[in-house]
Amino acid sequence: MEQREQLDAGGTPLPTDDVRFDNTSTANSALDSALTISTLTCAAGYTGTVTTNAGLTILKDVSLAAGAFSLGASSWTVFGNWTNTGRPSTPAPPR
Q1: By the 8 A CB rule, do 83 and 44 touch?
Q2: Following DSSP, what letter does each residue of 28-65 receive, concatenated?
Q3: Rounded distance, CA 67 to CA 69, Å?
């Protein structure tokens, strides 16, 4: 099963999955329980909002070029590079 089909069917990404939001969908996404994924990409053209209400661990890179983010009281742990070519994030990630 393709990753998009898995997620559309209500599946949960695995630590080996690369999660990508792009212009093929404008749907919002909500994370309500702690999750570990391989990479996170929000490509140009994505206009939805990603809401995280629980911890997110990203084992490799984060690339943000579009979309909106609502982090609430959650925290993200990123072990790779953080690239933000879209609008500025608030608060800015630590360096």
Answers
A1: no
A2: -EEE-S-EEESEEEE-TT---EEEESS-EEESS-EEES
A3: 7
Is this model's pTM higher than 0.90 or not? no
Give the full edge-to-edge strand order of the sheet including 49-52: 29-31, 49-52, 68-70
- Spatial distance between the Cα atoms of 6 and 10, rounded to a whole number of angstroms: 7
Q: Nearest CA to 81 among 94, 57, 63? A: 63
Residue type, 62: V
pLDDT tens profile 16-52: 999 999 999 888 988 889 999 999 999 999 999 999 9
